[in-house]
Write a structure and sequence with these properties.
The protein has 2 domains: about 150 residues, Cobalamin-binding domain (Rossmann fold, 3-Layer(aba) Sandwich), CATH 3.40.50; about 250 residues, Alpha-Beta Barrel (TIM Barrel). It is built from 19 helices and 17 strands. Helix 3 links the parallel strand 3 and strand 4. By secondary structure, the protein is an alpha/beta fold. The radius of gyration is 23 Å and the shape is globular.
């Protein structure tokens, strides 16, 4: 059979028009392993011409879509267009279908939705459709027949990750993706997370699978991971970074002790990874350094310990964070801080504490986003219970806050999103930045936004010209 994946992505300029997705990569790989053909259409807007052209040229037998909650509006438009113009079965998977299945199965035009990990459920569906067999019993899937919804149980998670084929990258525009230096060539050495942060869907995922923390976290063997990296390097010959997207790359120190010497010997490219501040110590940072780690990405999220450890339930102290950034500097590894603004019950004073902690640790890079209450997370439920979620829409985590809170105004949150980096890093024109960041010239658009947009446009123009030269 021929399966067309459709991947709706956020319209974020720095990401461009294409992104890599490991989930789709695994789904495509296992289908190809069983002699099926796959293709991919990535969309960051509702482009009927692109959809029509791809369907006509590829002639798929099945449409498989993966959607986040941010992109479910775009997904609905795509599904409706295909339903009204092509006689094709469509299935929807991803986090939105997993955590809001009742809402998702109600979308007109769907054959069914897939909950949880989808490699073997999707393969089984494709095999049934190809052979004309009854597909209504397939685990992980919900199907709708008229007014009836057929809800199948989840099958066990894949425990032996080495048994899966390497993610398929051929369906992606890898050269275009690799132009973004901060993305890197993406890999994962594990699935799952031990922790229960309230802004993450991990606790809900464990709950629907009825699993404890220990059974949920699964590691690939070091040799299997390195074999994949080696094959990708030989195929694409990229000149950037290897990016490990595991929730925390240092979760298992024994695994890290094996990984460090093997990676440095087998792979010549530097890498970056995510790390929890409470898992970094002298040994782990030394192992990362010896393996050629150039950057660790660390979640600060908030400078206030109550917000971080009671509201977000991260269990990480300010001392843990300070120590981690000190160790990174000591070993010559750059460090990035993740920060969220507009958290539930946040005040302007608490935002300033986040600024202050960043000033203290001096990250090499700052990642900043609006807090987003995603379905399937404990904080989503908390925000709903306290009537904090407004009717404002935002298609991604950099666009706007969608909370209305009595403790901090939305304009204050937007102000600190604009000036956060200037506060942390310092600026000779700080008074001008503060002034222009509060001068609105159109709706949510300030004079600061205009000036920054002009500067970025000029910068991108010269970068593009330099690349062409």
């Amino acid at each position: 059979m021929k399966i067309l994946f459709i991947f709706p992505i956020p319209r974020i300029p720095i990401f461009g028009k294409v992104l890599f997705n490991l989930g789709i990569g695994y789904l495509s790989a296992i289908l190809k392993q069983h002699r099926h053909k796959t293709d991919l259409l990535t969309l960051n807007n509702y482009d009927r011409q692109k959809i029509k052209q791809k369907i006509k040229t590829f002639s798929p037998d099945l449409i498989a879509m993966s959607s986040t909650s941010d992109q479910i509006g775009l997904s609905r438009q795509i599904i409706s267009y295909i339903k009204n113009n092509f006689q094709l079965p469509i299935v929807l998977g991803g986090v939105h279908a997993t955590y809001l299945p009742q809402e998702s199965i109600a979308i007109e035009g769907l054959l069914g939705i897939c909950l949880g990990e989808g490699e073997y459920p999707l393969l089984e569906l494709v095999e049934c459709l190809e052979k004309g067999k009854d597909h209504r019993h397939i685990s992980n899937f919900w199907f709708r027949e008229g007014d009836e919804i057929i809800k199948n149980d989840l099958r066990p998670l894949v425990i032996n990750l080495d048994s899966l084929p390497f993610p398929d990258r051929e369906v992606f525009d890898i050269p275009e993706i690799n132009k973004a230096w901060f993305v890197g060539m993406q890999f994962m050495g594990s699935r799952g997370c031990l922790y229960s942060c309230t802004n993450c869907n991990t606790p809900s995922f464990r709950k629907i699978y009825k699993l404890g923390k220990e059974n949920y976290v699964r590691l690939r063997s070091v040799d299997n991971l390195l074999a994949e990296i080696d094959s990708v390097i030989k195929r694409y010959k990229f000149g950037g970074y290897v990016a490990f997207e595991d929730d925390s790359f240092v979760v298992d120190k024994n695994w890290l002790r094996e990984f460090s010497p093997k990676y440095s010997k087998a792979i010549r490219y530097p890498f970056f990874c995510n790390a929890r501040a409470d898992q970094i110590d002298e040994e782990s940072i030394s192992l990362l350094k010896n393996a050629n780690c150039r950057l660790i990405r660390v979640g600060i999220e908030s400078g206030d310990e109550y917000l971080r450890n009671v509201i977000l339930r991260k269990g990480i102290t300010n001392n843990d964070i300070v120590k981690t950034f000190q160790l990174a500097k000591k070993y010559g590894i750059k460090a990035l801080s993740f920060n969220m603004l507009g958290l539930p019950f946040e005040t302007e004073e608490l935002i300033r504490k986040t600024v202050k902690l960043n000033q203290e640790v001096r990250p090499d890079f700052i990642a900043l986003s609006y807090f987003r209450p995603y379905p399937g997370t404990d904080l989503y439920n908390l925000c709903k219970e306290n009537n904090l979620i407004s009717r404002r829409k935002a298609s991604h985590w950099l666009e706007d806050t969608i909370l209305d809170q009595p403790t901090v105004s939305k304009n204050t949150v937007r102000y600190y999103m604009r000036v956060f980096r200037a506060y942390v890093c310092g600026s000779n024109i700080m008074p001008l930045i503060k002034l222009t960041a509060r001068l609105y010239i159109w709706k949510n658009f300030t004079l600061f936004d205009f000036m920054k947009g002009t500067k970025d446009s000029i910068k991108n123009h010269f970068m593009k010209n330099n690349q062409q030269v």
